[in-house]
Every structure is written in C-alpha cells, then in structure tokens.
Amino acid sequence: MGFTSRKDPKGVLIVEVDGQLIVGNRQEFKQKILDALDGGDRKFLVDFTRTGYIDSSGLGVLVSLSKKIRDEGGELRLAGLNEDLRTLFELTKLDTLFAISDSAADALKVS
Amino acid sequence: MGFTSRKDPKGVLIVEVDGQLIVGNRQEFKQKILDALDGGDRKFLVDFTRTGYIDSSGLGVLVSLSKKIRDEGGELRLAGLNEDLRTLFELTKLDTLFAISDSAADALKVS
Amino acid sequence: MNAASRKPLSAHVAPLAPATRGLEAQLAMHLPSDVAFIEEAVELVARHLEAHFVDRRTIRFNCRVALSEALANAIQYGNGGDRSKQVTVRVLFGKTAIEMEVSDEGNGFNPASLPDPTAPERLESPDGRGIFLIRRLVDEVRFNDRGNAICMILRRA
Amino acid sequence: MNAASRKPLSAHVAPLAPATRGLEAQLAMHLPSDVAFIEEAVELVARHLEAHFVDRRTIRFNCRVALSEALANAIQYGNGGDRSKQVTVRVLFGKTAIEMEVSDEGNGFNPASLPDPTAPERLESPDGRGIFLIRRLVDEVRFNDRGNAICMILRRA
Ligand SMILES: Nc1ncnc2c1ncn2[C@@H]1O[C@H](COP(=O)(O)OP(=O)(O)O)[C@@H](O)[C@H]1O
Ligand SMILES: Nc1ncnc2c1ncn2[C@@H]1O[C@H](COP(=O)(O)OP(=O)(O)O)[C@@H](O)[C@H]1O
Q1: How many CB pairs under 8 A join B and D?
Q2: Taking the model in full, what pTM does it have?
Q3: How far is it, in rounded angstroms, from Cα A8 to Cα A77?
Q4: What is the structure's pLDDT at D5?
Q5: Is C153 exposed, middle or buried (0-12, 13-18, 19+ CB in 10 A)?
Q6: How large is the average pLDDT for residues B43-70?
Q7: How many helices (H) and strands (E) does chain D have?
Q8: For residue C134, how far is its CA from the centre of ligand 1 (angstroms)?
Q9: Of the ligands numbered here, which is closest to the C-alpha atom of B60?
Q10: Does ipTM exceed 0.90?
Q11: How do beta strands B43-47 and B13-21 pair?
Q12: Is the minimum distance from the CB of B56 to ligand 2 under 6 angstroms?
C-alpha cells in the first residue's frame, strides 16, 4: 500500500499506485503530485500496474490533477490499467479525457 | 467424498475414507464394513490418508465395528492418521483401543 | 439506465462447488464513521465473499469498488464523518443472489435526482460518480425510502 | 478439566495481516434439523473463518470438529431431527476471540452431568464423546442456562 515515485531520464515523474486509490488515501496521492508540480515537474505518468481498485474519489482526484497540470502547461498520462480498471474509465467516459497507455514503457516512448 | 475399498493380496479389506467420517455418513461406512464381515472378510484396514476430519459419532462407529469384528475373530486396523486425527484418538484415549499404523503399507506388513 | 450498457456481471459469477445445498448466511459488521476503515472493511467483505464464490474476479473488483463507494457515502454524507455514528454493513449470501447493504444514521437523500456524470458538461467534475458506478457494477441497486440505506444485489449465475 | 491437558489452541492461531484494525463481524446461519446439512454448514463456516485467520490449521480441524459436534447435538437431541425446527449458528469474529454459537429449539440439558468418556468402563462405548471433544478442541465452552445454546470460544494469539 502506498505511492512510490521515480524520475525517468527524460524527466517524466512516474508515480506507482500500490494497492488502492480511494477516498482514504487520495489526499496523500494528490499532495505528492502537487508538490512535484510546485517543484517544477511538468510530465507525469501514473502507473496502475500494481493497483487493486480505484473508487470514484480516486477517479475524481485524477481528473482534477490532470486539469491543474494542463493549466501549468504539463501533461498527465496513465498506464498499466488492467481490464477492470479500464472498464471504470470506460463506464465513466474518462477514457476520453486521459492519455492511457498499455504500459509505463509505452507511455514513456511517446512522451 | 465417500468410501472406496479394495482387497490386498493377503486378503485385507482396505477402506479409504475420502473426506469426512461424521454423523451424516457414518451409517453408510458402517454398512459397508458390516456387509463385508457378513461376506466373510475378517481383516480390515481403514485408511485415513485422505480424511479431513472425524467427529465423535465417527469415532463411535469405529469403536463398535472394532468390537463386532473382534467378536467374529477378525481385526480392524487404522492407518494414515495425520497429526490432527491422531490427537482426536489421543484425547479420547481411543489410541489405546486400536492398532494404529503410520501408513496403509506399514499396517499391511504386520497383518 | 440502459440495461444493455451494463457490464454483464452475473456472467462472471459461478456458484460454489456442487456440494453446496444452498445454506444461506448473513454477515453483519459495524464501523466507525472514518474513511480510514473503508479499506479494511472492503477487504474483509471481499474475503467473506470469496467463501461463497469460485470465481473471484467479480468479487475482487466490482464488489470492492461498489462497497467502497457506498461506505464512503455513508461515512461522509450520511454520518457527516461523525465517528460516534455507525455505519452498518450487512451481506446476505443467498442461494441465488448476494446482497450487500450499507446503512448510516443520516437523513438520507433522493437518489433519483442525481445528474449523469458522463454528460459533457460534467465530465471534468471531480465528484458525482459514486452512485453511478455502483449502478454499473452490480446487477441491481435499491434504496430504502429515507435514502440512508443502499442495497446492492449481485445475482449468481 | 485440567488446563494443562488441553491442546494449546491459541498458539496455532495467528491474527490477520497487519492491516487489520480490528473490525468485528458476525456471521449468522440457519439450517434445517437434518444431519445431512452439517457438512456444508461446517465447510461454509470454515471458509468464513479463513477470511479472518492467516493460520488455517486450527480452523481446518479444531473448529470443524467442534462445530460438527455442536450441530449434531442441536439437530439430533435439541430439535429431535424435526426438520421444521431450526438450528442457528452465529459466529462472532472479534478482535481477540472468535465465538461460535450453536442454538436449537429444544429444552436443553445439563452439561455438568456428563460422564467422562475416557474412563475405562466407558472407553468402548460408541457414544458420549461429543461435548468432551468440544471442550478439548476450543479454548472455552459456555452453555446458556436452559442448555439449548452452546458457545465455543477460540482466543486469538
Ligand atoms: N448515504 C448518503 N446520505 C446522504 N447523502 C448521500 C448519501 N449517499 C450519497 N449522497 C448524496 O448523493 C450525492 C452523489 O453521491 P455520489 O454519486 O457517490 O458522488 P459523490 O460522492 O462524488 O458526490 C452526494 O454528493 C450526496 O449529496
Ligand atoms: N443440544 C442438546 N439438547 C439436548 N441434549 C443435548 C444437547 N447436546 C447434548 N445433549 C445431551 O448430552 C449427551 C452427551 O452428548 P455428547 O457428549 O455430544 O455425546 P453423544 O452425542 O455421543 O451422546 C447427549 O446424549 C444428550 O443427551
């Protein structure tokens, strides 16, 4: 359970969600990304490879972060969604709002 | 779930208890052995290698069968009890009443 | 809601081993109104659900998300985060369905009045997807009249 | 009963993963008075118990035997095999203990009056080992005053 981040050579901040992204921990996640944005980071990749489930507040935090990052001229990409998580984005039509790559490696190629 | 039996070359009837030996199925088990006793079998080996658990009525049926078989000049041996099952026999002191072997193979050596 | 657009949940759910004669069981749990308990509660219910299903996929995902949403609403809106108020979870493991009920001590709300979160003008809103998701992830959703108890039903195949 | 002669059950029981904050849950189940249901009921409870314990050994064995005994007594003696009468099983998954309660609709009995089945003159008796075994396989046994409900307690390590 938790969030780990590392910087890719091209300067993309990759944040891995280990466990759940839900109402109980989304604030910690949000703060982590906002701090990096404040610190000058502009390219973000959230890796869901090790994520169990996301609730609507987790989706909400992704929506609001994406907007904030775009406003600063940056970009937020998502990767590593399994079939279930992808279904959540499709059901809510959020798949139309985000750049979603199959894997973190794929996402980094296009960055 | 159930009881399978086979005859060893020496004439021992080996009955395997697959699953539980409890109040719900002990009658079937008892009948199987009594029928064999009627049919002339005298040496019996009950193999508990694949047994999950036994309840007190299962223990009771073994006690009464053992007595009946002895009365007919036969013998009932038990084998394949795991640690838990062995504990049941020890707690009830029934380990003093039965010939208990580690495995069916061991039991057949001494028959 | 368009039934055809629903994820065909029941297709993922296989009944238990053939030995099952269909005994019914009910699990009850109370939790304080603190979102920090949601994860454990969801995990616990998921583990109990696994005691009844062979196929764990639906349990792992759909039930977890739906239950997590219902708990978050009960804790935050229903009980207003007042830890002295309780949220009650009841799960009925039936012969043909599983029902998960979450109730709070609040005044309820009118679930019929919620806007569609997939409408273009709401798509970038950070909120308003909870009940919507629940409805898509389980087979049937019922509220009590007051609106402080939600019952989420999953039919067994 | 001599405490030292007891199987040190609690030693086999490990608490759940560290994530557990100790939510309590209760499982309730009703079954018809027919011994044919015992196996499924025991299996179901065992599976639910596994949702709460890491170490499955005690669950697999001690709980199964103890529950099986209590159910057999409730069905056969308590309800006299009358299928219209119900047996109720309640399992409380607590923070420090698990309690399994089995109750029937009968008139009860006096558990203090049971003879010791390990006495030499009783050793070859086919009956009388049920309550004795229950007492040895769980940490504590309590009856209600009427004697138609038995509560079997397992302490968590
Ligand atoms: N248990 C509840 N008690 C009171 N109001 C509730 C409850 N559940 C939901 N609501 C109301 O319904 C609205 C929509 O909830 P939901 O679809 O989960 O989205 P969100 O939680 O993101 O607002 C909430 O904003 C709240 O006003
Ligand atoms: N639920 C019950 N209702 C009434 N009598 C009971 C109940 N449970 C046990 N008894 C009585 O206690 C006796 C001992 O039970 P037990 O130790 O399980 O051994 P057994 O079932 O082999 O007789 C039974 O014979 C019965 O008379």
Answers
A1: 74
A2: 0.87
A3: 14
A4: 40
A5: middle
A6: 97
A7: 4, 5
A8: 12
A9: 2
A10: no
A11: parallel
A12: yes
**Among A76-80, C7-11, C24-28, D149-153, where is mean pLDDT lowest?**
C7-11
Listed in sequence order, the residues at least 6 apart from B86 whose beta carbon sits closer than 8 Å to its beta carbon are B95, B100
Residue B90 CB partners (closer than 8 Å, separation 6+) = none
- Probe residue for ligand 2, chosen from D71, D101, D109 as the CB with the greatest number of ligand atoms within 8 Å: D109
In angstroms, the CA B36 to CA A90 distance is 66
Closest CB to D38 among B23, B64, B91: B23
State residue D25's pLDDT score.
93
**What pLDDT was estimated at residue C18?**
32
SS3 D42: helix
Spatial distance between the Cα atoms of D46 and D30, rounded to a whole number of angstroms: 16
3-state SS record for B41-68: CCEEEEECCCEEEECHHHHHHHHHHHHH
Q: What's the confidence (pLDDT) of residue D65?
A: 97
CA pair distance C70, C49, nearest whole angstrom: 17
Distance between CA B26 and CA B60 in Å, rounded?
Answer: 9
* pLDDT 10s digits, D3-55: 334 333 333 333 333 334 578 999 999 999 999 999 999 999 998 888 776 56
E-strand ranges in chain B read 2-7, 13-21, 43-47, 51-54, 75-79, 99-101
User: pLDDT of C75-127, one tens digit each?
Assistant: 999 999 898 999 999 999 988 888 999 999 999 999 999 999 999 999 999 99
Name the CA radius of gyration of chain D, rounded: 16
Give distance in angstroms: CA of D65 to centre of ligand 2: 15
Neighbours of chain B (3+ CB pairs under 8 A): D
Instruction: Tell which of D55, D61, D65 to mutate to test the B interface (max B CBs under 10 Å).
Output: D65
Structure tokens at A12: 């993309």
User: How many CA atoms lie less than 13 Å away from C84 in the CB half-sphere?
Assistant: 0
- C contacts of D95 (beta carbons < 8 Å): none
**Cα dist. D73→A4, A55, B89, D106 in Å?**
55, 47, 20, 10
Sheet holding C97-103, edge to edge: C140-143, C149-155, C97-103, C86-93, C25-32, D25-32, D86-93, D97-103, D149-155, D140-143
Query: Which residues partner with C151 through β-bridges?
Result: C101, C142
Q: Which helix (H) or strand (E) element contains residue B30?
A: helix B26-38
Nearest residue on chain D to B58, judged by CA atoms? D126
Query: Measuring CA to CA, how many Å separate A71 from each of A11, A64, C3?
Result: 19, 11, 38
Please state, in angstroms and rounded to a whole number, the distance separating the CA atoms of residues D63 and D152: 9
Q: Average pLDDT over chain A, rounded to whole? A: 95
In D33-128, the DSSP E strands lie at 86-93, 97-103
Instruction: Give pLDDT, residue C7.
Output: 39
Strand-pairing partners, residue B4, are B16
d(CA C91, CA C98): 7
Q: What is the B54 CA–ligand 1 centroid distance (Å)? A: 52
Supply A66's token pair: 């994406």
